[in-house]
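Q: Protein A?
A:
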Amino acid sequence: MITGAGRGVGRALAGAALDAGHAVVATVRGDHALPRHERLTVMRLDVRDRAAAHETVERAVEHHGSIDVLVNNAGYGLIGAVEEVSEDDARALMDTNLLGPLWLSQAVIPIMRDQGGGHIVQISTVGAVGTMPMLGLYNATKWGLEAFSEAMAAEVA
């Protein structure tokens, strides 16, 4: 399962997984140009919606029987000085880049535990280990992603 698979890195990952012979559930928020493929299932998902994240994971399991890998790829950058970022922009960024991966991780962990294993891949950035002017809030979302992912890995080990 790959979130944000409609374009960019997510689309490239979906293509590579299909080329390697894997079945892929590709989630997209809006329009996409993913090719039709017998092993590709495209599902609409706005990762900011916790209930929708859980429902989409359930539908993916119903369709494929399991989820062996979750790639939390959906996200975006925001350029702007910290003092100038609006509340709406800050909340949308946090909801997408930080809480979206949290909701999906929470949804797949019980499934993977019941299966006896699985992998969660978080797409982050070099900005998660440092800061850059004009990317403060984006860096904050990725630092948070790194932090909860590290703790989560130890918790489920």
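Q: Protein B?
A:
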Amino acid sequence: RMACKEDIAVLERKWGMHYFNCCYNDALISLIEEEREAEISVLEIGCDCGASLLEIRNRFPNARLYGSEINAKAAQVASHFAQVAVNNIEEKNLPFSGEKFDYILFGDVLEHLHNPLDALVYCRELLGDEGCVLASIPNLMHISVMEEILRGDFTYRESGLLDKTHIHFFTYNEMLRMFQEAGYEIGKIVINRYPMSDRQEQLTEALLALDGRAERFMYET
């Protein structure tokens, strides 16, 4: 659950966290196409308190669960039902030697890394022969951000597309290039569309008319 504005300072002071995410990432978990009794091995990078890992256990009771989390207090919560390493994935020091993963999850994490490409290259070596990475990444090209830029604004916020803790920003094309450069074959892309105001609809049409190379979904997602 996202913290209200009044709680954020307390969370950062007491727990060293911008917010605690206690909601699982259904969009990512739904991409795990396995039988319920499958004995899969799942690693989540930036697992926070483990909400997504716990939901994976609910759906796949024989799953072996692992996490990587930079915040020790959040990792302590997740460690009640998963093997969790307190580490920074960019240091390439995961302690799960000998384990090959069927799934590695990055749920809104890659944009927080200094070198997300390097992290993906490292994780590729941790995957089994048929293993895959499941990632959700915010799209900077969404019309709400473009609308701000055209007004001359680029205002960071506590959460969302312009989360103040984001280090990297991605468009759809940049996401594809990153995974391809890291040596992955892209198997499936799912996009989340959000309702647009009349003003945003008009602005999208105007932007599409300026450059025929962009596609509508790039502004809607």
